[in-house]
Amino acid sequence: MLVKLRGAAQGPGALVAEIIVAALAEVLELRVPARRLVVLERDVVTDDRDQELGDLLAASVGLNLGFAVLDEAQDFEPSDLHRIPPADAAAILWLDRLVFNPDRTAHNPNLLWWDDRLWLIDHGAALRFHYDWSAVTEATPREIGMTREPHVFETASDSDEWSTWDSVFSGRLTRAALEAAVATVPADFLLPLIPGAHAGSPAEQAEALRRRRAAYVAFLWKRLKPPRAFVNHSPVRVVGSPE
Q1: Angle (nearest 5°) at CA 4 between 6 and 211
Q2: Within a 10 A sphere around the Cβ of 55, how many other Cβ atoms?
Q3: Which residues, listed in sequence order, are joined to residue 40 by a DSSP beta bridge?
């Protein structure tokens, strides 16, 4: 099992994004490695002489996120584009635009071949709005997003079938599907993203979690409402890391 640690740079927010996006991908009939929650104990031994790994492990004590290892999986290469069914390429592009995922480019496709099928990995950079909810406005869900490089399947939006695929994909992502995806996120990953929540009583924490889960659902549900700007427009190209 591959474990993504909560003590890494983006903290539990990246794990929240991994869980939600993977769940939505599966609703769209895309393949994502199976996920499991992993508890990391204190004082895990490491041979890292610089103690960088030790520090990371110490910062990750508690609940983390594991992924099934796809043994002998092969990296996706741009030369593999002809192997991808058009509907799959469209679904991946559509999903990444929906969740503001900037990390599916020719240089960094985050796709693997395993069992002769394509698998999606690494969605921690998606849903960046959840790092600063105070900056989210009524207009934010309508934004088209930003990216450093074009999506590896960017040309899928040029297809005559793009509008048909949009109807199919949006029809699958019902409000119930959004609620189910968000519900799978452990409270332990969400609480650190809610200012002051850890200091509250159990009842206050429960209410804060309820409101935060509802906020994710409301944001994505509004983003899915037509007209969907992310369907008709590519993300804005920026220099450096999109924030």
Answers
A1: 50
A2: 13
A3: 62
What is the percent of the chain where pLDDT is above 70?
A: 95
CB 123 within 8 A of CB 101: yes
* C-alpha span between 17 and 105 (Å, rounded): 18
Sequence-ordered strand ranges (E) for 31-110: 35-40, 62-67, 74-75
The packing angle between helices 86-98 and 202-224, to 10°, is 130
For residue 49, pLDDT beyond 60: no
Are the CB atoms for 173 and 24 separated by under 8 Å? yes
For the chain, helix, strand, coil in percent to 5 are: 45, 15, 40
Tokens of 105: 């480019």
For residues 174, 215, 224, 237, the Cα torsion angle rounded to the nearest 10 degrees is -140
Domains in the chain: boundaries: 2-237
pLDDT at 43: 74
Backbone torsion region of residue 87, taken as left when φ is above 0, otherwise alpha when ψ lies between -120 and 50, otherwise beta: alpha
Task: For Cα atoms 217, 219, 222, give the angle at the middle one, nearest 5 degrees.
Answer: 100
114's enclosing H/E stretch is strand 111-114
The token pair that represents 223 in the structure block: 């983003």
Give, as one character, the DSSP assignment of residue 116: T
- Report residue 90's pLDDT band, with 50, 70 and 90 as the boundaries: very high
Do residues 38 and 1 make contact, with C-beta atoms less than 8 angstroms apart? yes
